Amino acid sequence: MRAYPIPLSLTAVSTVALAPFPTIRFLLNPPISDKTTSLFLSTSCPRFLFSKFRPNPFCSNSDATSSDTNEGDDDDDVYFDDDDGFVLSDEKTQTLSEDGFFIEIKKLGGNSRTIRSKIGIEASLDTVWNILTDYEKLADIIPGLAVSKVVEKKDKFARLYQIGQQNLPLGLKFNAKGVLDCYEKDLEILPSGKKREIQFKMVEGDFTRFEGTWLIEQFNKGKCKGNEAFAGQEFQTTLSYLVDVKPKMWLPVRLVEGRLSSEIKTNLSCIREEAKRVISALNSL
Known about the structure:
By secondary structure, the protein is an alpha+beta fold. It has a single domain, classed as Alpha-D-Glucose-1,6-Bisphosphate, Chain A, domain 4 (2-Layer Sandwich). It is built from five helices and ten strands. Strands 1, 2, 3, 4, 5, 6, 7, 8, 9 and 10 form a ten-stranded mixed β-sheet that branches. α3 (125-133) crosses α5. The chain is globular and about 50 Å long. The N and C termini lie far apart (49 Å). Residues 121-268 form the Coenzyme Q-binding protein COQ10 START domain. Pfam families: Polyketide_cyc. InterPro entries: COQ10_START, START-like_dom_sf.
């Protein structure tokens, strides 16, 4: 694993996640204007549309002035933590493993990545949907997600403010803050079952691009063969998390992809466990 020097005088920041969004809690902690900070501390909903984070560079082996020229250098030298069992591939297979989990990272060129992940869940689409859209409770489900607040809510739309925290080796602690817009799509009935999705986009944070989809699919019995994780069920439900990510130029994508992959697997697994808990509670009534 390649190490990057990190000045202890700087903190880190951003947010996913879906998180729900996957809690991207290992990035940069940019200073926020006094006006924006006071809104965060008030009881009223903060307005994020016109405030912008002003991040400072960290985690760099070169001067800030040379960042632009080095942005694409990672294309042929990508760090990947093989011990975590993640896949860096152009293959389009989405076969679930024995534990019902799949994840894949694709290089898009430059500093961009696409991450596709999927997990099997022994619960209905509605159960998983209710967990994902109970946005403020996500902080109780996702480890390290310290805050998940709804700052604006309309029909089929939510704007979230999230803070995540994570301890790293050598005593370092990274904080993550960010604002995420979530668009709740209508239920779609399919010949094989049904699906519903939440599209999300980071509107403030430390990424040039961070947007994607939470997709819940429920397949009728017999329509999705070959997955041992669903043996004996009348239906099969999968939760997919798809995201395109491009960190800003001072944040090495090699650092992002390894940590983000680990975060995604943890978050999906926690949502699956919460769904199991909900089903168990209903069955005990």
